[in-house]
Amino acid sequence: MDWHEWHDAYDSPDSYLSERLALVQERVRYALDAAPAGPLTAISLCAGQGRDLIGVLADHPRRAEVQARLVELDERNVAHAAESARAAGLPGVQVVAGDASLTDQYADLAPADLVLLCGVLGNITDPDVERLLDHCTALCRTGGTVVWTRNRKAPDLVPQICAWLEERGFERVWVSDPALTASVGAHRFTGEPRQLPPGQRMFDFIGYDTLWRT
Q1: Helices (H) and strands (E) in the chain, counts
Q2: Alpha carbon distance, N-terminus to C-terminus of the chain
Q3: Angle at 61 between CA 75 and CA 121, to 5 degrees
Q4: Residue closest to 67 by CA, chosen among 37, 101, 104, 92
Q5: pLDDT tens digit sequence for 69-127
Q6: What is the dihedral of CA 208, 152, 74, 133, to 10 degrees?
Q7: Number of neighbouring beta carbons within 10 Å of residue 119
Q8: Edge-to-edge, what's the strand order for the sheet holding 112-117?
Q9: Cα dist. 182→23, 153, 176, 185 in Å?
Q10: Which of 20, 116, 155, 192 is 20 to 30 A from 41 (CA-CA)?
Q11: pTM tops 0.90, yes or no
């Protein structure tokens, strides 16, 4: 899979990705609006070109208060995201080329006010989905929001994703219409964050093109 070329569909207003992006950005905007006053931290795993967050921060009134880290493996996407952040005047947005599955990437920012799992949950095995959501209890602060996406292909894992989050102290804020191809959800953490364990891999990124062939 060419993950740089994959992003081209975002530029088509009729694509499911552009529809998903609009919903994700709406949830990100709401999360920033509802966050307490003062500095905010955000992390994005497998951030791609950073459109989920950068597209919101570009004109958000709290843009200067946000320190964010976007972690992405494809260096072409990293370059695109870094240029987008620079063009939008967002010095608080750091784009890192690296393995987004490693806890050490987020050690100095977790627990964060906003955690983005957009484009991740459909590219890893179901056990790894649960494992990553379990790590969200360390990635996300009390009152913070996890915004996530997942396709609704059969067997539909979205109800189980909600259950796994809610079993771990996350309160459902919003989940998109089940009729949509790609589901978007937002959950707020009501528990006490645990310590993010160092040196751990939270998931193995396989890719939906491989997963759905097995």
Answers
A1: 6, 7
A2: 16
A3: 40
A4: 92
A5: 999 999 999 999 999 999 999 999 999 999 999 999 999 999 999 999 999 999 999 99
A6: -100
A7: 26
A8: 93-97, 66-72, 40-45, 112-117, 140-151, 182-189, 170-175
A9: 10, 9, 9, 10
A10: 20
A11: yes
Q: Considering Cα of 122, then 33, then 51, then 17, what sign does the dihedral take?
A: positive
Are the beta carbons of 81 and 49 closer than 8 angstroms? yes
Residue 66 and residue 54 in contact, taking contact as beta carbons nearer than 8 Å = no
With 90 as the cut, is the pLDDT of residue 16 above it?
no
Domains of the chain (ranges; CATH) run 5-211 (3.40.50.150)
- Distance from C-alpha of 170 to C-alpha of 145, rounded to nearest angstrom: 9
Distance CA 175, CA 184 (A): 6
Q: How far apart are CA 76 and CA 88, in angstroms?
A: 18
Task: Quickly state the pLDDT bin for 3 (edges 50, 70, 90).
Answer: confident
Query: What does the block give as tokens for 106?
Result: 């987020």
DSSP 8-state secondary structure symbol assigned to residue 112: E
Q: Which band of pLDDT confidence, cut at 50, 70 and 90, is reported for residue 214?
A: low
State residue 121's pLDDT score. Answer: 98
Concatenating the DSSP letter of every residue in 78-96 gives HHHHHHHHHHTT-TTEEEE
Separation CA 34–CA 171 (nearest Å):
15
The confidence score (pLDDT) of residue 6 equals 65
Please give the helix or strand (H or E) that residue 77 lies within, else none.
helix 75-87
